[in-house]
Amino acid sequence: ICMSRARVNSMRNEKKWQRKDSIHTELRCNIDPEILKRNVDAKTFFEDDQVKDNGSIFCKRENFDNLRRVIPTSKFNGIHIKFEDDCPQGGDDVRLCLLKTLGAHDMRSLPCVACCELLPIYDKYPLIDGIFFLTTLLRQGVPSVHLLFDGRPFYIQVLCVACLWSHWECRQCGDESFMGQSLILGTLYTFDVISIPQCCSPLCHDCNSPISVPPQLINYIKMGNYTLIHEGVTCPACGSTRDHLSRKMSHYNISRLDALSSALTVVDTTVSMTSPKLGTDITVDASIS
Q: Domain named Headcase middle: which ranges (predicted)?
């Protein structure tokens, strides 16, 4: 098949977004020594009641009632939930890194970014009654605790199982493609799961103007390269270059169906949460031990 020289040159000059090889990714702790010192000075570790009972500041899971109330019995298995026995070699590094970072900041629970419910963090898989995920967008009211992924700082945020198994609808175009039920519960995702649906033009996080995104970038994201959600995109209106592809919670309408009463509840995604004051952003890297 013959192609014109102009077409060949345009293809050569076209910007490529390469799919990252997961083999080269690295997750590392990111602990602010000042916050760590402040928490250590505030209380003696071994005098903490939780530590006395469990040997850790994190809860020891006694049952799976919160998960069973939402997901059907047929989904209660190692395919849909990350259990401790399912960890492959090296998989425990994710748990240790996550718990070490949260523990250093005395974060024993985190609020769901959708419904604001505080979710206790457990010491073993499944680590939470929902999912952890990493994002570059600090959503309102969420503690600013970081992990380093591929050398970049990402915020740790959570979604509860009830919100994941709810009906999500884009407020701009009515898209309903968010499939929280397909995500594995109790573990960590290294990309912003809330922003997976790239259904309509994103809005600038600074001036709220619509942004035209290269179709190739959107296609790569739709093909599963979700780390590209964190790529910097420039707003033509105000010139701001940042993670405009990351969706705010106000982008969605979320309707929750109660499995027991069949009642439909609308989740208010515009509610502001009050989070613990954690001090300055975290900038110091600490390796996993």
A: 52-245
